[in-house]
Amino acid sequence: MSTPPVNLNIDPRALGKVAVLMGGSSAERPVSLMSGSGVLAALQSVGVNAQAFDPAERPLHALKDEGFDRAFVALHGRGGEDGSLQGALELLGVPYTGSGVMASAIAMDKTTTKRLWSTADIPTPAYLSLSREALTRERVRTIPDELGLPVVVKPPHEGSSIGITKAKGYSQMQDAVTLALGYDDELLFEQCIEGPELTCAVLGEGANAVALPVIEIRAEDGNYDFANKYETDTTQYLFGSLPAALEAEVQRLVLQAYRLLGCRGWGRADIMLRQSDQRPFLLEMNTSPGMTSHSLVPKAAQQVGIDYPHLCLWLLAQARLDRKA
């Protein structure tokens, strides 16, 4: 594997006054507060003048008014990961971590991401996208006939497994739809790929982007839901469980998917490995991955010798705007 493009010789004082954006008003606010608290402590531990900033409690223009030089985006979900925050920071002229406006907006919409990947022959599970108006009881009953069972029902603009159901039978479909419609007006119905769940993080941009080691996730009862992500310690995260050639193929696909979306800074793809033929299928790209104690990007970075504080420091040093000042 290539050496990650991480220069750890960064002068923290040169990064100026830093806002760690956390909290926000999305359904992922609790996770964002955990991520942001971890990032804030890590940056302060290496000498960065970093302060917490919650956009749900303070107006964004305070970033400019109070002289912040850059922002570390530790927000998840809508209003933080979907391009709207990135656009506001562009207008304010405050450089920020992670992907820009367009890549953030596309990646936050799982349906649009899948459409784009499909045009480039990047494998992703078969799917249907249906609006609230189209989801009559009669239409919902036909979806398993088209995709097979189980069917994964998702609100395509949420993360952290919020609002997702793996419907194993026709009788579960309507409840799954009702739950997901509580979060979105358009739903994504996805063919369920049976097999191990994988994730792969990327650091960098364009041709210089590098994939970190692949992680196999083994959750209790095979259900990597919100509780198993953030509230328990029973989930196993395995490195080196794949044959070398298969791991390299997963990394190649993830890099292709990351570059196609125009991501920068960092990201993390979620993948299902079909048990029957060991073929990987990409589910989504996270452009503001979690940074909690349970989070996967820090685990992968540790495998290549990058500790948590220096990962945060490097990401902060990459902060920039889409446009030139």
UniProtKB/TrEMBL annotation:
Q: Where are the transmembrane segments?
A: none
Localization recorded for this chain is: Cytoplasm
Q: Which UniProt keywords apply?
A: ATP-binding, Cell shape, Cell wall biogenesis/degradation, Cytoplasm, Ligase, Magnesium, Manganese, Metal-binding, Nucleotide-binding, Peptidoglycan synthesis
Q: Name one GO biological process term.
A: regulation of cell shape
Residues holding Mg(2+) 2: E284, N286
Look up the EC number in the record and give it.
Answer: 6.3.2.4
Classification via Pfam families: Dala_Dala_lig_C, Dala_Dala_lig_N
Positions of the ATP-grasp domain? 114-317
- GO molecular function annotation: ATP binding; D-alanine-D-alanine ligase activity; metal ion binding
UniProt KW Manganese keyword:
yes
Q: Which residues form the active site?
A: E28, S160, S295
| Cofactor(s) needed by this chain | Mn(2+); Mg(2+)
What is this protein called in UniProt?
Answer: D-alanine--D-alanine ligase
Query: Species name for this entry?
Result: Inhella crocodyli
What gene does the UniProt entry assign to this protein? ddl
